[in-house]
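Run log, item B.
One chain of 743 residues. Sequence copied directly from the ordering sheet:
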Amino acid sequence: MNQPSDSEEVVDLNVPEMDCDSCAGKVRKSLENQHISECNANPATGKVTVRYNSDNISEDRIIHLVEKSGYDVVNEDLTQSVLRSPRGVRTALSGVFAFLGLLFEFVISNSDLIIFETIQVSTILYLSSILIGGSIIFKSGYNSLKTRSLDIDLLVTTSVIGAVTAGVVFGESLFFEAAMLSFLFNVAEILESYSINKARSSLEDLMNISPEEAVVKREGEELSIPIENVEIGETVIVRPGGRIPLDGVVSEGESAVNESPITGESFPVDKNEGDEVFAGSVNEEGYLEVEVTRESEDTTISQIVRTVEEAQKGRTEKEKFVEKFSHYYTPTVVILGIMLAVVPPLFFSMSWVTYILYGLTLFVLACPCALVISTPVSIVSGVTEAANNGILVKSGSKMEFAGNIDTVAMDKTGTITKGELEVTDIIPLNDNSRQQVLECAYGIESKSEHPISQAIAEEASDKNLQLQEPRQFESMTGKGVKAELHGDQHYAGKLSLFKGEGFNLTHIHSTTDNGFITDRTKEICQRNNCLDLVEDIVPDLQSQGKTVVLVGTSEEIEGLIAVKDQIRPTAKEAINQLKERGVNKVVMLTGDNEKVAESVAEEVGVDEYYSVLLPEEKADKVEELKDEGRNVAMVGDGVNDAPSMVASDISIAMGVSGTDIALETADVALIEDDLLKLPYFYDLSRKTSRVVKQNILASIGVKAALVIAVPFGLVPVWVAVLIGDAGMTVGVTANAMRISNQD
């Protein structure tokens, strides 16, 4: 839903009794033409989101209209047990009276006991059961009639009243059938509510991860206050065993923190001063003080919950099919029910009572509740399970579609690689030492913000080297940098920089200080005492995916430093697992040079790679893959790769913890930079799609079989209710809940 304008407000209402699409339809109809600009009623979550003009209608009026449609608005997401609800109590009483009526009619020897000369005791008991159990049904049926909704409430109301009327008119008792229909339909509704609430509970658990209060340090005191009153920059205290209330950075203490509710990571993560922590994660053992960096509504877990809820608002292709099917199914079966009740007795002298009962049974089967709920409840389960494992899915359609992907395009920097350069080699030349080369490079590069400069600075810091303050620093765009160190001019940059300064790069004297360099560069340097940087050393390092920086004075080259963006440890395994699961092509797209791209592609095992690409050229490559008839997923950082992500069938952003930038572009976002989430998500999507298909086929198949069997007298009304209505709804819901158990 888009952000409301200044003249509009948005309210979220909890309507747990709204558990099917026809229920949602009644709610939507009750709000029509009421200054409501947008209404989203989601039976899978039991929530109604309304955007309205506050100048024309109040929130209280909206609540009144929703409740007028027959469903209570409650303060809590999931309130009392369905067994202790008013419906539960009335259903129990209805069942008692129906059982007593059955007892008097068929078991007790004096079963023909008469009251008021004409009315049997069993009839009184059956009517009592109908009135007690039917009061809720009749109210809902009346609301359905007002909103012109041909749903299960209206159809069952018609069936109960029809059975009683037929019994009175034709002198044959259908009170037993009417009583059992009233009782069993309520039982069915209770079972449905219970199963739907169980399916919703996974989302409720996710929403309740963050504590409601935080212990804050204010003016030397510890205060427990609601998390919405904690301001950015304040310090909250988290003791062992406590949940971290808000996103922040550890300002004091150290501990192992269980982040599994946020990232899906099963092992606790060690946190020290300066480390980021997420609201909802559990402090396992140590004392922590956390400086708050985000308000309660902006925490990572809040974003996860919002994304999960938003994902359930759209309709998948299968939901659209089900909606279209239901649009024709219900009136067709109702018409068949009317014809079955009238045609055989009228034209073939069949029993009116028998065929009216058959027709009313078809009425019970006319509402496809299980079919309508089968897809959204599966999508809810899949999206919530993904969120529990650190994967945010923006729409149900993408949740379902991801399992059809046969081609994955991946950005290199920040996706396959960490996006953080590290020094891999330091090769001293002309009798300089490794330390001298690093110190010189550190001094020259210290004024630069380039990622290579930062990698060199980090390496020098790790070696506890002292910074030599440079003078007259100058950046030479595209070539390197230069500065004065101890009065001498020094350079750091590409081969072209030193070529331009007139250096002989093909006959460089090798250092004797080989003890400071790696085995790989030892082998290179010891081929002879004179090294060829142009044809030998630099190309060899570049073939390993490294970027080379030469360091020297105006008189000699002191050495060279190689840096490399490290490949993620899980990259190769993730790509292999994707291929094992049916993804037949993995492509790497990068703006880096050919040698680096080739090295990375070979190491991780992609099928194809394309280098030196601009963002729009990456998008063109994605379009080319789609033109080949492929279903393409693009995995990137969600910012620089935006054009190619938009061009793909499904876009996946890496490592978006605490940010919403990637979610603006991506269909799916991974909270952590763990590529193994990709094959997991692929499996989850396929399982979700499989469950959706099973639920649709089972719902249609069972309903069709029952409808066909009714004219042959093979389906009593209690079977229609318990199997065709409650049984199938409970069945599809239970099947959907299997999604959370990956196999």
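Observations after the first pass:
- The chain has a mean pLDDT of 81.
- The first strand starts at residue 8 and ends at 14.
Flagged for discussion on Thursday.
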